[in-house]
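Dear colleagues,

As part of the handover before I leave the project, I'm documenting each prediction I ran so the next person doesn't have to rerun anything. This entry is a single chain, and its sequence is reproduced below.
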Amino acid sequence: MRPRLLRSVMPLVAAFVLTACSQPDTYEQFIRVSDAPEGVYAFELDLSDSTALYDFSFYLRNDKASLWAQAADRAVPLDIVWEAPSGDSWTERVFLSSGDEHGRVVPFRRDCAPVESGVWTLRVTPQDTDKGWRGLGIICHRHGTR
């Protein structure tokens, strides 16, 4: 009787262990303005699943009295550097709608398939922010397959 019980329980234990060790499908990082040396927000993104696609969104937040919060249609220019695990890098500039005192999630990239798997560094330097800028966050969502 004992071997039969082990045969039925072991697959459940193995499934639990694999689920507990896998990375979450969505994770977030938020960096306060005081923790961004020289105005550069550096995010580490674990893109090690070479079979997955990734979506990225930015999270922006401002003080209530901020000029940015009062001008919801105003765009925030971001200079972005993508650094691959190998050290290669790519740059781009994007314009995202500003945040408010409650925060705003702004989609950035969808269905990305990185050319290299591993931990990437995303360095973001916002331009033209005022004293009401609280910080910047990123949301990474892993889904699907290539």
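Helices lie at 2-21, 67-70. Residues 12-21 have pLDDT under 50 and may be disordered.

All the best with the project,
I.
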